[in-house]
């Protein structure tokens, strides 16, 4: 097991910045997921950890040892590739034991260790087969076994489930979670699949354009997204995001846009001119109602998701998705209303894209507090 730290790590390919000033502290035994869209730098970051790429700047530490310039074979890390990278001419046993043979481990020790790891992953009956005789899920387990056999300090996994079908991917996710709990080892896992990240991670590092956008538990990123990017990336469907204004009405502030009027739990005292914002609401936080709605619009489309329906409302110029139990009780073309708890409304600065937070002002500067309070970078 190992603690992994990255300080100021950057990497450029020509004029393109693949990884930009990344600082991370991964705890011993943590399951950390690097998540982001294609091209965000997550695989490059993992390859730098493995020693397959050299950072242009910064340091990589394994426990208290600086391994930034160490070759891959001298790092106490095991890489599991997306393509499995099994040797086709070797048996399953030969593939699993290869790292130990490369280290000139005695044959008896190799055989014992291969048998032990194979048993833990349900591969005992497959040890004499070759990779071509295995299913995709079996090959994935062989690749994991090869990484486990030398008991590395940390496991690096680059989208290891992307080649599996949906059913097998779900089953293998459960196996990996169980394996992590059993081993207690540090896992660094790269994926673009938010379901994998949300279900497997202790913490998620969300990347975009080589920069860290937010680090936290799955619940923290989902419930309190730091920016418009985080809010729009996580969730299926993602958070409803639309331009709006915060304005004073009576004793309270209201969020107003076409077909939308939501009273916010903020006193209006001292609030000045209208404040432009980007508002966000999760589809599952909206509730269809017949009276006193916060949002009213025409039902443009209904998607049947089995146990739920996804109702798409056209509210003014905005499209609002509502996730509701099936049957939702509305039909396409009719006018429908929804209500939302004020606590479920997220506000973001339209310029920076950062989350706006409310701090009760000491006197009469309430408006200024809304305008300037953002989550720190």
Name the descriptors.
single chain; 377 residues; alpha+beta; Rossmann fold; OB fold (Dihydrolipoamide Acetyltransferase, E2P); 2 domains; 6-stranded mixed sheet; 5-stranded antiparallel sheet; 9 helices; 20 strands
Question: Describe it for me?
Answer:
The chain has 377 residues and is of the alpha+beta class. It has 2 domains: 4-224, Rossmann fold (3-Layer(aba) Sandwich), CATH 3.40.50; 240-372, OB fold (Dihydrolipoamide Acetyltransferase, E2P), CATH 2.40.50.140. Helices cover 24% and strands 35% of the residues. It has helices spanning 42-50, 92-102, 107-120, 136-148, 166-183, 194-200, 218-223, 228-233, 366-372, and strands at 4-13, 16-26, 31-35, 57-62, 65-66, 77-80, 154-158, 186-191, 203-208, 211-216, 240-249, 252-257, 260-267, 275-281, 286-289, 295-304, 308-315, 318-325, 335-340, 346-348. The strands form 4 sheets. Strands 6-7-8-3-9-10 form a 6-stranded mixed beta sheet, sandwiched between helices. A hairpin with a 2-residue loop joins strand 4 (57-62) and strand 5 (65-66). Helix 2 crosses helix 3 and helix 2 runs parallel beside helix 4.
């Amino acid at each position: 097991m190992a603690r992994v730290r990255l300080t100021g790590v950057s990497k450029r390919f020509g004029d393109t910045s693949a990884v930009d000033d990344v600082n991370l502290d991964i705890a011993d035994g943590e399951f950390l997921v690097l998540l982001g869209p294609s091209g965000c730098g997550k695989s490059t970051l993992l390859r730098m950890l493995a020693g397959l790429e050299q950072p242009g700047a910064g340091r990589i530490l394994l426990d208290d040892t600086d391994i930034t310039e160490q070759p891959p074979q001298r790092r106490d890390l095991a890489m599991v590739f997306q393509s499995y990278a099994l040797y086709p001419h070797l048996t399953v046993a030969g593939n699993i034991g290869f790292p130990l043979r490369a280290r000139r481990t005695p044959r008896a020790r190799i055989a014992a260790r291969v048998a032990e790891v194979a048993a833990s992953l349900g591969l005992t009956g497959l040890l004499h087969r070759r990779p071509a005789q295995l299913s995709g899920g079996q090959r994935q387990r062989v690749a994991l076994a090869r990484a486990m056999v030398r008991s590395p300090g940390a496991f690096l996994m680059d989208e290891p489930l992307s080649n599996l079908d949906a059913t097998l991917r779900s089953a293998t996710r459960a196996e990996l979670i169980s394996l992590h709990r059993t081993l207690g080892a540090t896992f660094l896992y790269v994926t673009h699949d938010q379901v994998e990240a949300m279900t497997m991670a202790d913490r998620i590092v969300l990347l975009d354009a080589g920069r860290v956008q937010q680090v936290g538990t799955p619940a923290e990123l989902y419930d309190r997204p730091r920016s418009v990017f985080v809010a729009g990336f996580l969730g299926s469907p993602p958070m409803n995001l639309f331009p709006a204004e915060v304005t004073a009405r009576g004793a309270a502030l209201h969020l107003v846009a076409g077909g939308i009027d939501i009273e916010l739990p903020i006193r209006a005292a001292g609030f000045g001119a209208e404040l432009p914002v980007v508002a966000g609401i999760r589809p599952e936080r909206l509730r269809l109602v017949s009276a006193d709605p916060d949002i009213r619009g025409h039902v443009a489309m209904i998607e049947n998701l089995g146990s739920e329906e996804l109702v798409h409302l056209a509210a003014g110029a905005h499209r609002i998705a509502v996730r509701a139990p099936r049957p939702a009780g509305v039909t396409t073309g009719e006018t429908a209303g929804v209500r939302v708890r004020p606590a479920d409304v997220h506000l973001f600065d339209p310029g920076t894209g950062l989350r706006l937070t409310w701090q009760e002002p000491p006197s009469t500067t309430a408006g200024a507090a809304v305008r300037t309070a953002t989550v720190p970078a």
